Every structure is written in structure tokens, then in C-alpha cells.
């Protein structure tokens, strides 16, 4: 629906800005309670990120739901919402709508058919709860006296509660905006600098030239940054590094920090190469490393890390220290990114409205009664694997029950 009806100026209960996962969940929960709820979405349709997520099948939650799987300046903040709204609650809603799902790996749950099923389910739930959804409407200003007034390109709305559900800055071409941050600041709430997360990382000229030659190569690795590490697939691309392990670690990476990649996770490469040398193996480095990593990578690693004096010589003829040095490069490959591919390629935004200004039980701003912030707009970032949608559902549910 486009534009406001003649009753728009009447005092409603709740205005939700943003028709994404968190906004729709907030709206349907509040609507079920009999509240008069309007959702304002500036894009042409709601739920656009849901539609493109998880390769079109939406990784909508994860069975391993723990506070440790979220980044935030306050790591306890998510506990209340995720303990009250669990994966099984979302599964129960899918069940009521006959939506089939499956686990792919690591507790990650996807739709069998299409992410569009999730959007349709949320729309059906909103319709049943008499939620009014307005698309293609731009908010031009927000003010508060005894209630909130939201000025829009289609007229003004008045409501007791205002829910900021406009997400973060990732993927501007899908409608991302800094709206929630601007309104939060307007009402005196602090905002932690938003930055791209779950994002491919890029490298300086010298490393970039080397990495580009490997574009398309993928392998399981252990990617570490400081004390945090993830074991998953790594993908070399034309621009740098991506793949689940790299995306995960990108959320923890800060400028200037090195990454350490173990290209043979779970293996003691030093011992394995030493054993091979002892056995008198006649293969040279590329063929030797090719036992563990894809051949193109084995070639590139040999060219980069094997000293010239050993080129063309079988491992059996190497000094022990040279074998150990090669093993170290393979198990602790050090790379220092120069940056990320930015918000255009980031799956999510790290940072956002500071959790210290919000109630973890209701998502309401403690200093501004009636103002709520949910979903990605909040300084809560989930791991890859369904955690970000779960945060959208759980925070939306918490706010929907409280507004
Ligand atoms: P979301 O961004 O979804 O919604 C905000 C809405 O507000 C948008 O519709 C936007 O147009 C609207 N809006 C913005 N500014 C506005 C304004 N000024 N006025 C009105 N409306 C405004 N997560 C996961 O758990 N599993 C997955 O499989 C994936 N996959 C995935 C793939 C890709 C390519 C991306 C980019 C992201 C994912 N994610 C994901 C992350 C997930 O999509 C994200 O965390 C949630 O969509 C966040 O939900 P929100 O509702 O908070 O924001």
C-alpha cells in the first residue's frame, strides 16, 4: 500500500520505521496485542534483505543460539531477548504457515523453497494483526511532545511509540540509511561508529597481486585475529579474501591488525612435513603441499615462501629448519588487510545505537519513553549463520511485546 489514508492524522499506538525483519516482527507482535500499528518503509517493498539472504533461501536462525555468538560493546545485552525468543519460537511460526526448512550445517536453518516464503509469512501475520504497511514513504522529520509525530512525504503520523527498525548501512542499493542513528542522536542517544562487518577484506598492492592469481580457489582454513578464530571455508577473490571464515573474522578485525591463516586446520604441519622428509620423499614443494591444499595454492605458496636455493630440490634434501619454516608459513600464514570492501559488500553493520541507552528487556530508550530501537540499528552484530536474523526476530519480539 502507498500513501496514508484519511485517518493518518489520528493518534495511533505505534509507528515502526523500516519494513525489514525486525520492523515486521515488532509490528506483528504489537498488532496481535490489539495495538494500532503502522510500518513505514521507504523502499518499494518490505523485506528486501530477507529476499536476497542465504542465497535466496534465508538462513533465518541457528539452533546454537548463545550470547557468545554476538558482538556488542555490552556482550550481555542480547541475553534477555534471545532467551525469551528462541529458534523454536520462529520454527513454530514457520510450522503454522506450512513452511518447510532444513539444517545446512553448523545449526544454520534455511527455507527448503524460498526466502519469499518468510516475507509472505510476515506479511500474512501483519495482515491478521491489522498492521498497516506503507511503502514508498519517506520520513522527513520526527518530533516528540506528549506523543511522537512522524512527518512523511505522504503526511504526518502521530503515535505513542516510535520504533526505529531501519537497519544499518550495509547494501545502500537495497535502501540502507543512517535514519535510526540520526533519530537516536536527535534524542540524545549515543551511537557507536557504524562499520562494515561480515565483509570481504582487501590488501595492499604486493599482497593483492599475489592473492589475485588465486581467485576462485577455496579451502577449509582456521582464520584468526587476535584471540578469535573461525574454522570454515576461505575464498580467494579478484579483490582479496572472502568466504565464511574470512567474513566471520572480518567482524573482529580492526585496522592495522594482522590475520593468521592456518591452511591445514587440525593438522600438525611441522610434524607431517618432517615425517615426509624423513621418509625420503622425492617430490618438490608444490607437489608436497598439493597433498593438503589445492594445487594452484600449493604452487603459489611454494613460489612465495620457499627460498630460491631450494627451488627444484626435493623435500628430502632440505635442512630441518627450512622444512619447519615452510610448515610455519602454511599453519600461520600472516596477512595484514588494508581495509574492507565497504558497506556496498558488507552483510551487516557493526556498531549502531549504543546498548547502554536501551533496556535489554524491551529495547526502549531509557531516557526517552516510547522510543524503541530494534534489529541491526542496535550495536549488536551476529556471527554469520542466521544470528543476525535471529537478533532481528528476538529484538523485534521484545519491543513488540513492550510498546
Ligand atoms: P533491514 O535492513 O533488513 O531492514 C531495514 C528496513 O528499513 C529496510 O527495508 C530499509 O529499506 C528500511 N529503511 C531504511 N531507512 C529507512 C528510512 N529512512 N525510512 C523508511 N524505511 C527505511 N542474516 C542472517 O541471519 N542470515 C542470512 O542468511 C543473511 N544473509 C544476508 C545476505 C545479504 C546479502 C545481506 C546484505 C545480509 C544478510 N543477512 C543475513 C543480514 C540480515 O539481512 C540483516 O541482519 C537483517 O536484515 C537486519 O534486519 P533489520 O530489520 O534490522 O534491517
UniProtKB/TrEMBL annotation:
Task: Extract the Gene3D superfamilies matched here.
Answer: FAD/NAD(P)-binding domain (3.50.50.60), HI0933 insert domain-like (1.10.8.260), Translation factors (2.40.30.10)
The cofactor(s) it depends on are: FAD
Keyword annotations for this protein, in alphabetical order, are:
FAD, Flavoprotein
Domain RsdA/BaiN/AoA(So)-like insert residue range list? 195-348
Pfam families cross-referenced by the UniProt entry? HI0933_like, HI0933_like_1st
Q: Which residues form the RsdA/BaiN/AoA(So)-like Rossmann fold-like domain?
A: 13-401
| NCBIfam families xref list | aminoacetone oxidase family FAD-binding enzyme (TIGR00275)
What name has this protein been given in UniProt? Aminoacetone oxidase family FAD-binding enzyme
Amino acid at each position: 500500500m502507498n500513501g496514508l489514508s484519511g485517518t493518518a492524522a489520528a493518534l495511533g499506538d505505534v509507528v515502526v520505521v523500516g519494513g525489514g525483519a525486525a520492523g515486521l516482527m515488532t509490528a506483528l507482535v504489537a498488532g496481535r496485542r490489539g495495538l494500532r500499528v503502522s510500518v513505514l518503509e521507504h523502499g518499494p517493498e518490505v523485506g528486501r534483505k530477507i529476499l536476497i539472504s542465504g542465497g535466496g533461501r534465508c538462513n533465518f536462525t541457528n539452533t546454537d543460539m548463545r550470547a557468545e555468538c554476538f558482538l556488542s560493546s555490552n556482550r550481555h545485552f542480547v541475553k534477555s531477548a534471545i532467551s525469551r525468543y528462541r529458534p523454536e519460537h520462529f520454527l513454530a511460526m514457520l510450522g503454522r504457515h506450512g513452511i518447510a526448512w532444513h539444517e545446512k550445517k553448523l545449526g544454520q536453518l534455511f527455507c527448503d523453497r524460498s526466502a519469499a516464503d518468510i516475507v509472505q509469512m510476515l506479511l500474512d501475520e501483519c495482515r491478521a494483526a491489522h498492521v498497516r504497511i506503507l511503502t514508498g514513504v519517506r520520513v522527513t522529520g520526527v518530533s516528540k511532545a506528549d506523543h511522537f509525530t512522524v512527518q512523511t512525504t505522504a503526511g504526518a503520523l502521530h503515535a505513542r511509540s516510535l520504533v526505529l527498525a531501519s537497519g544499518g548501512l550495509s547494501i545502500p542499493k537495497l535502501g540502507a540509511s543512517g535514519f535510526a542513528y540520526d533519530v537516536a542522536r536527535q534524542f540524545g542517544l549515543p551511537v557507536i561508529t557504524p562499520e562494515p562487518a561480515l565483509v570481504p577484506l582487501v590488501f595492499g598492492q604486493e599482497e593483492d597481486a599475489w592473492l589475485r592469481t588465486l581467485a576462485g580457489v577455496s579451502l577449509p582454513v582456521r582464520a584468526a585475529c587476535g584471540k578469535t578464530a573461525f574454522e570454515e571455508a576461505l575464498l580467494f577473490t579478484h579483490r582479496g579474501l572472502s568466504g565464511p571464515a574470512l567474513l566471520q573474522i572480518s567482524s573482529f578485525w580492526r585496522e592495522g591488525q594482522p590475520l593468521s591463516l592456518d591452511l591445514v586446520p587440525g593438522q600438525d604441519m611441522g610434524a607431517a612435513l618432517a615425517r615426509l622428509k624423513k621418509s625420503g620423499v622425492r617430490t618438490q614443494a608444490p607437489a608436497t603441499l598439493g597433498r593438503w591444499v589445492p594445487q594452484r595454492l600449493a604452487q603459489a605458496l611454494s613460489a612465495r615462501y620457499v627460498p630460491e636455493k631450494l627451488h627444484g630440490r626435493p623435500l628430502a634434501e632440505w635442512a630441518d629448519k627450512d622444512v619447519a619454516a615452510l610448515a610455519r608459513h602454511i599453519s600461520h600464514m600472516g596477512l595484514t588487510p588494508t581495509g574492507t570492501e565497504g558497506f556496498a559488500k558488507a552483510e551487516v553493520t557493526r556498531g549502531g545505537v549504543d546498548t547502554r541507552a536501551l533496556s535489554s528487556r524491551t529495547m526502549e530508550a531509557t531516557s526517552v519513553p516510547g522510543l524503541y530501537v530494534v534489529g541491526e540499528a542496535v550495536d549488536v552484530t551476529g556471527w554469520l549463520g542466521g544470528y543476525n536474523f535471529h537478533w532481528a526476530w528476538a529484538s523485534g519480539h521484545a519491543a513488540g511485546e513492550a510498546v
